[in-house]
Design a protein that fits this description.
Blueprint: E1 7-16, E2 19-21, H1 35-38, E3 49-51, H2 53-59, H3 70-79, E4 85-96, H4 102-105, H5 110-120, H6 127-150, H7 159-182
Parallel strand pairs: 1-4
Antiparallel strand pairs: 1-2, 1-3
């Protein structure tokens, strides 16, 4: 019914460990210009989306260089330039909770989202989009930099990584402060 909409997603039902699971508010599907809503986490499911090939020609494909969060990366690149439609009807059943689920295999999924966000800063963004990306990077770096304290079960190998995130956080915070004063 809307031929100008080159990408749309559909509603989905979640089953986790054999039981129906209500998605949390942060997972609610949005439509229209959803770039801002897409920054915190992946809110478009690859199994629940219909994409016209024109978008791939313009944006590119999944970044296979990302170990995980390649879908998050793609949806951000798309949502910064295209509206995303929503057919609220539940047409997909998503089954999760299994041991080999990618989101369970990696500590600090935000590490990969930060890689994607840093890549995005090299793209042509509006001033508002750039500001939103910088704020999200700072938010995610803050979470990662204090993550070790909240997760004592993590191996000591992550200690240097936490210090690295604290250093990068300080650099991004200083950079954002400088950028804001220049405006």
């Amino acid at each position: 019914t809307n031929p100008k909409m080159l990408i749309s997603q559909v509603g989905e039902k979640w089953i986790r460990n054999g039981k129906f699971a209500n998605p949390m508010n942060k997972h609610l599907k949005h439509s229209g210009w959803i770039f801002k809503e897409s920054l915190p986490l992946c809110i478009v499911s690859p199994s629940a989306v219909i994409i016209h090939s024109k978008i791939f020609k313009d944006i590119g494909n999944f970044d296979v260089g990302l170990t995980v969060c390649e879908d998050y990366d793609l949806w951000l690149r798309i949502s910064r330039k295209y509206q995303i439609g929503l057919i609220p009807e539940t047409l997909i059943v998503k089954i999760g909770g299994h041991k080999d689920q990618l989101s369970r295999q990696f500590w600090g999924m935000d590490r990969f989202r930060i890689m994607s966000l840093k890549k995005l800063l090299k793209e042509e963004l509006t001033h508002e989009q750039r500001e939103l990306v910088l704020k999200e990077i700072i938010k995610k770096l803050t979470i990662l930099s204090i993550g070790r304290a909240k997760r004592p079960e993590l191996p000591n190998v992550f200690k240097p990584k936490i210090k690295k995130y604290q250093r990068i956080l300080n650099e991004f915070t200083a950079s954002c402060a400088m950028e804001t004063t220049e405006l």
